[in-house]
Amino acid sequence: MSADPAAAAAPPGAPLQSREPPRVAPAPSAAVELLEEAADLLVLRRDFRAALRTCERAWQSLGHGAPPGGAAGSSSEVKCSLCVVGIQALAEMDRWQQVLSWVLQYYQVPEKLPPKVLELCKMQEPGAVLEVASAWLQDTDNQGLPEYRALAALHLQRVLLPLGCLSEAEELVMGSAAFSEEQRLGTLQAISTARQQQKHERLGPEDQKLNQEGSFSHKLLSLLMLLRRLWDSAVSHFLSLPFKKSLLAALILCLLVVKFDPASPSSLPFICKLAQTFHWMRVAVFSPLHQPCAHD
């Protein structure tokens, strides 16, 4: 049995050297280095234009293949991180309207957008992301993702309902298992309220004027009926009082309204005439009811 030449040449007590070449750690890819540089430009240096350009350079380096020694999953994570940094750089420059177009030049298929990237894109105007978000939510592969429920609720609250897409919102709520029963009932109630509001807004000026006139007429009629009931109640109560009490109430009313002095001699004829008038009224009102029948 032959001995290892390296072991034979080594002096006694020296550590043995292996014939296998030492393993060298894979060098980081250019995309990862550029991602770190872009993050540094964004957070530390606050150079947003340079950070965006660095992200674009990283995307170009990713177009030549996956990182050496890395898996496809790590490449997807790098792409997602590059999009996040790029979106934040565009947002800092107040260029939200360019976010979706910038992302879609790298993810040509909207259904393949990472959930985090789609969530950031929803910060745009609702109309800009309606088509892309709807396509992403309808994809069967995305419906199994853990982020699907939160993105569906976000799409409903920030896109469909503000845009008035009530049929699409109802279809999403009823056809998706991402919503609980409580969320489904609350959303359907909100959709019903929005439909009523849309119906009211679609009425023309003439229809709204007719509705206002009808409402005013109804209120006026209710007020007149209330006054009539109060008048009937006051009259019935007044007629149920004895004659002396009625006369006293009339005198008090005259004192308050006409403001004459009952102790003055000039007021005596008026008081007598008022008493005679009340007597005739009482006889005219109650005599047919209480007068006994005449017998032959």
Question: Overview of this structure, please?
Answer:
This protein is an all-alpha fold and 296 residues long. The protein is built from 13 helices and no strands. It has helices at residues 5-9, 30-43, 48-62, 72-92, 99-104, 115-121, 126-138, 148-163, 166-175, 181-202, 205-239, 243-257, 268-290. The longest helix is centred in the last third of the chain and has 35 residues, at 205-239. 16% of the residues are buried. Residues 1-27, 64-71 and 289-296 have low confidence and may be disordered.
Short description:
It contains 13 helices and no strands.
pLDDT < 50 stretches: 1-27, 64-71, 289-296
Estimate the global geometry from the Cα principal axes: rod-shaped
Kindly report the average pLDDT value. 75
For the CA atoms, what is the radius of gyration? Answer: 45 Å
Strand content: under 5%
Put simply, the count of helices is 13
Proportion of residues in helical segments: 55-70%
- What composes the largest sheet? none
Q: H/E element string?
A: HHHHHHHHHHHHH
Class based on secondary structure composition and strand pairing: mainly alpha
> How many distinct beta strands?
0
Terminal Cα span: 164 Å
Question: What would the keywords be for this entry?
Answer:
296 residues, 13 helices
SSE topology sketch:
Blueprint: H1 5-9, H2 30-43, H3 48-62, H4 72-92, H5 99-104, H6 115-121, H7 126-138, H8 148-163, H9 166-175, H10 181-202, H11 205-239, H12 243-257, H13 268-290
Helix pairs in contact: 2-3, 2-4, 3-4, 4-6, 7-8, 8-9, 9-10, 12-13
